[in-house]
C-alpha cells in the first residue's frame, strides 16, 4: 500500500483515520479495510516475534528477566502470562499438530510467494516467473528439491500438463515438450 503525502484527502469513516484523513490519499477503494488488513498483519507479526523470544527461556522468572528491548514492562508481564495460559496452549496445540503433518515445505521463510515472484521478475520486461518456475524457486535449494514430496508434486504437474497438451494437439511427446517450454517460458 502506498500513501501520497499532500494529495487530496479521502473520507474515512472511522475515528482511527482522523490523522491519516487530512494528510494522505489512500489508493484502495476501501481504505479502512486496507488499513485493517495491514494492522492485523503487523499485530500478528509482532506477537509471533515476541512469542519466539518467550520460547527462548525455560522458566517464567527467566522470561520476565529477559524482556525484549522494544516492549514495556507491563506489556511483557501480560504477554508472559498470556503465553503461559492454558487458553493459549489449547489454541496453539491444533496449530502445532497441523504444522507437524505438513509434508511439503518451502524455503521462503516469512516471505510470501508473491514477494519471491516479484523479486525474480525479468527487470527489462517486468514479467514474473510462471507458476512452475515459482514452485522451483520456493521448493529447491542449491539445485535440489528440499524433499521428495515437492519433487513428486512438480513431476506430477509436469506430466499432467504434458498429457493435456498432447491430447489437445495430437502431437508426439517431443513436440509437446517444445510446446510446454513455449507456454511456460522455460527456454528463456
UniProtKB/TrEMBL annotation:
Residues 1-33 are annotated as: Disordered. It holds the Pfam family Transposase_24. InterPro entries: Probable_transposase_24. Residues 1-16 have a biased composition (Polar residues). This is Uncharacterized protein LOC107802229 isoform X1. It comes from Nicotiana tabacum (Common tobacco). The lineage of its organism: Eukaryota, Viridiplantae, Streptophyta, Embryophyta, Tracheophyta.
Amino acid at each position: 500500500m502506498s500513501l501520497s503525502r499532500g494529495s487530496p484527502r479521502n473520507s474515512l469513516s472511522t475515528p482511527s483515520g482522523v490523522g491519516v484523513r487530512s494528510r494522505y490519499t489512500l489508493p484502495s477503494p476501501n481504505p479502512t479495510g486496507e488499513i485493517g488488513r495491514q494492522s492485523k498483519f503487523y499485530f500478528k507479526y509482532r506477537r509471533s516475534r515476541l512469542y519466539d523470544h518467550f520460547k527462548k527461556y525455560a522458566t517464567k522468572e527467566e522470561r520476565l528477566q529477559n524482556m525484549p528491548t522494544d516492549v514495556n514492562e507491563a506489556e511483557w508481564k501480560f504477554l508472559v502470562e498470556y503465553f503461559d495460559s492454558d487458553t493459549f496452549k489449547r489454541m496453539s496445540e491444533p496449530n502445532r499438530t497441523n504444522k507437524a503433518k505438513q509434508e511439503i515445505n518451502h524455503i521462503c521463510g516469512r516471505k510470501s510467494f508473491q514477494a519471491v515472484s516479484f523479486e525474480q521478475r525479468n527487470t527489462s520486461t517486468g514479467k514474473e516467473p510462471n507458476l512452475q518456475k515459482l514452485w522451483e524457486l520456493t521448493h529447491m535449494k542449491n539445485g535440489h528439491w528440499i524433499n521428495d514430496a515437492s519433487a513428486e508434486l512438480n513431476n506430477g504437474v509436469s506430466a499432467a500438463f504434458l498429457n493435456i497438451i498432447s491430447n489437445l494437439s495430437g502431437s508426439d511427446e517431443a513436440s509437446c515438450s517444445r510446446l510446454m517450454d513455449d507456454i511456460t517460458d522455460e527456454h528463456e
